[in-house]
Amino acid sequence: MPFIESKERRKELDKVYDAMVLADVKADGDLNYILYKFCKYNVATRYNILKNFLGELHECESQCRNDFLVPYEIKKKIENGDV
Fold it and tell me: Is 6 left (phi over 0), alpha (psi -120 to 50) or beta?
């Protein structure tokens, strides 16, 4: 799980999450739009900064894969059998 040490910072970031839920953000283009627009207008076009931004996206993808997709695939493999 991604960790935010400061409880105050977490509260502030949870407001962003709440706004996304309220706006019914979906992972069918909405999320791509939000992240791309954030990068375009808020991430400095310097190599290290862009590399760090993309690294954050990659780590989020990896964490979601490990926490959600892999267990689902294992469950389905058990239910349906291997290839």
Answer: beta
